[in-house]
Amino acid sequence: MYNFEFAKPKTVEEAASAMAAEGAQALGGGQTLLPTMKQRLASPEVLVSLTGIDGMVGVSASGGSVTIGGATTHAQVAADVAESYPALAALAANIGDPAVRNRGTVGGSLANNDPAACYPAGALGSGATITTNKRDIAADDYFQGMFETALDEGEIITSVSFPIPQKANYQKFDQPASRFALVGVFVAKTPDGVRVAVTGASNEGVYRWTAAETALNSDFSQAALEGMSGDADDMISDLHGSGAYRAHLVGVLTRRAVAACG
């Protein structure tokens, strides 16, 4: 490690002010940032902790949606949305291990937008709205590539609103050591149509599988996806699995998710 300043604001306004300092970096649960700092891959001059802001922690459900504070941990999401949005609760309950789930936050996961993280699939598949200290951003506009988002410098995710679908399920084929998604698929059936979001597979990060959405909008069944798979040319290929393997898993997991929706 190296020397840096630490700020723990009590309000979003104080956090935004602290983030305006040169070299400032927001700190959620620290599950990504702290390891990268230890490896000297990141060197912020000021860490601005968001975990002490009461208005950014907690879950509320109303008007057909669930709103989650940006500093809410995965463990709290898993417990507090189990009745209102079971598919999202199950997604949160299977992130990492207990240590990660009790420290990692929704806002931190979405701000980092790791290509193998689970929450980006949940947000994109649900058609969520990401609220910051400056604006509301639709999930379809928010994710812009691997580790890339629509966030401006110093912008803070204060909450995320998830519309509750008619049916939803998340299926993950995880990498055993990290429990990141080798491939993860979130399927949601909504009054406006079916949404299918895929994480862990593409070189472009999380994405919507529009071909599957079209098929499922005509027939919401496993049979509608028979013989379909992802595009291997767009898939990540590494020591954990080839592009062709990931493309195959996209099809398999989407069919499983549809079946689990009932």
Descriptive report:
This protein is an alpha+beta fold. The chain is built from 10 helices and 12 strands. The chain has helices at residues 12-19, 33-38, 74-80, 86-93, 98-103, 106-112, 119-126, 139-142, 210-218, 243-261, and strands spanning 5-7, 24-27, 46-49, 59-62, 65-69, 129-132, 136-138, 157-163, 167-174, 181-190, 193-199, 207-208.
Outline type: globular
Radius of gyration: 18 Å
What's the multimeric state?
Answer: single chain
Instruction: Provide the CATH architecture of the largest domain.
Output: 2-Layer Sandwich
Q: What order do the SSEs take from the amino end to the carboxyl end, as H and E?
A: EHEHEEEHHHHHEEHEEEEEHH
Quick recap of the structure?
This protein is of the alpha+beta class and 262 residues long. Helix content is 31%, strand content 23%.
Secondary-structure blueprint of this entry?
Elements: E1 5-7, H1 12-19, E2 24-27, H2 33-38, E3 46-49, E4 59-62, E5 65-69, H3 74-80, H4 86-93, H5 98-103, H6 106-112, H7 119-126, E6 129-132, E7 136-138, H8 139-142, E8 157-163, E9 167-174, E10 181-190, E11 193-199, E12 207-208, H9 210-218, H10 243-261
Parallel strand pairs: 1-3, 2-3
Antiparallel strand pairs: 4-5, 5-8, 6-7, 6-8, 9-10, 10-11, 11-12
Helix pairs in contact: 3-4
